[in-house]
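Lecture 7 notes: from sequence to structure.

We start with a single chain of 663 residues. Read the sequence below before looking at the structure.
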Amino acid sequence: MGKEARGSMRFAVRCGAMLGGVALALPCGQAVAGEEGGDSATHILDQIVVTGTKTPHTLQDTPVETLVLGREEIDRTNAQNIEGILKSIPGVSVSAHDDTFGTYTWNAKMRGLSINDGYALILVDGQRVMGSGQSGGMGEYGIGLNQIPVEMVERIEVVKGPGSALYGSDAMAGVINIITRRTPKEPVVGAGAAYGWYTVRERLKNGVVEEPADKNRHQSQAYAYFGDRPLEKLGYLLQYNRESAQDNGASRIDSERDSVLLKVDVDPTKQLRLFAKGEASDYDKEADRKEQSYRLSAGADWQPGAAHFLSLKGYTYNWDFDHGYLDNTYGHKFGDIAYRQMEGQYTWTANQTHALTSGAEFQRQSIDFRIDNADNSTIRVDREIDIASFYLQDELTLPGGKMTLVPGVRYDDHSVFGEEVNPKLSAMYRFSAATTLRASVGRAFKSPTIRQLYYDAPYGHGSYYVQANPDLKPETALGYSAGIEHWLPEKNAMLSVGYFRNEVKELVTREDTGTLYNGLPLQIYRNVEEATTQGVELMGRIWAMGGGSLAFAYTYTDSENRENGKALPYTPVHQVSLTPAYDLADYGVGMSATISQSSRQYTDTANTAQIDTHTVVDAKIYKQLRKNAKLSLEADNVFDSDKGDEGNFRTGRTLMLKFDLTL
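Now the structure, written as tokens:
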């Protein structure tokens, strides 16, 4: 039996065993709230969010700056992956990425700090992810946003500002919580398929074609799900997705991913909720990339009375990967990453103005990894890192009801770096029912990656080699933010404006050693830099009579590497987007568009190479064939704007035809 066949069989066996285990074990749960409904201002304000404080709040009452993208808003986008959903969020920059399954996505930023390098924490259903995820790029090092298919997403909560007081390492710029579909309250069946085409731009060097591209590519998607609550106290949801696309490189290289999700919840009593989730995916990129991931979570929520809430949960995640081949410039990389987490949380609600939350968490991160370099050298890493944590948070509304304070602190005992203490203070002040001020200040930290610490020999990275450094120290950051939000009296329009600043110290970077290794320059990781990002975010939205809406977002970001005075790579100074949408309900027709512009951004630390200012227009039109059937035509980059780094292949215009059916 060949390697590929063995891999597919191994995936099938693990997937079946895991999902069977979920169905039999049952004991887990996660709080995902928010009822389905119209995409109106009232519906948005009444949504329940949990990520910012680990306690439920309506969106209008949460004391921590939070943005939510619900399923209806996601359906209005043309997004083929998670990054495509986030491009209209102020402070999130994904302008240099390609919204096509299977392409690399290592340029995402939040408030000027790299998401993929671990400066913003990525969660799926409130639980950490590791590795790039399928179609994420950067192997075991990068942390990819595109962990699950778009069709599995119920909503995304984006919490901005330092989050280490609750979540520990990596939450410097904020937290992105990708929440999967819920178990339904009544029988539901859905399915859909999409097929599309896109063009690929050639790779250039100084404006001259360095490597041409076979321009026409295709991509497709299909999904199906069903769920029910066969018993009053038992519900389930099962979903399958398949994605396929041709790579945006010099030639057509197929990428495919199969994903399955099973969720089960049981409510034995009104006070006790048990639930479980299993998720698995199998990714295969023709010739040089195979990945498989498995997530299994279990837990229980118990609320014996109005004043007490206890949550216990466990989580395991495995990501197996096989990248490249021996003669590849980057070598042949293969191995697995594992993540284990256990957490207990207790919330005491004294009254409507005071709630105290405490928790304990244990994390174990491990990697068993090997690189066979083109020079016949071998790198082997087999390491574990343990982190034991305790956190405490107080939510206190002062007399008069206008001011809410949320102090919090987290203690982490890291098996490599020892103790870390990260405090945070958030505040919310209501000038009126329509006007709210939110502000926060906090400390955050980021542990060096296993690659940066423990690779026992230099590894090839294109035109140079890189050496790990076991003496690295954690990076730390101090973050500030303040913003004001105002709603018109009829709640048919809102406007918000905010300021943020992040000061990062002990920034890990690659530094040239001045020596050669195998005839190429040798670099080493060192804590040598400080960086600052600051800026202004502006957002507005209008809901018009008759089904129309208009959203506007603008971000100004000033970034600086304090060591050399240069701007941080892939951080545009100006970003602006305009998103009109209109539904003709009587005719079953709807349309939407997003016009976005990003100013010049540099692609290197020396600020010698850049992506020019560019404007991209996406458009979508749909026809409701019946109450439960919809046909959509989507066009990304309608005017074929050159929006990426000319040194890489990048997508141009994309067309997709989609059909969705629900029963």
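The chain is about 10% helix and 60% strand. Keep this in mind for problem set 3.
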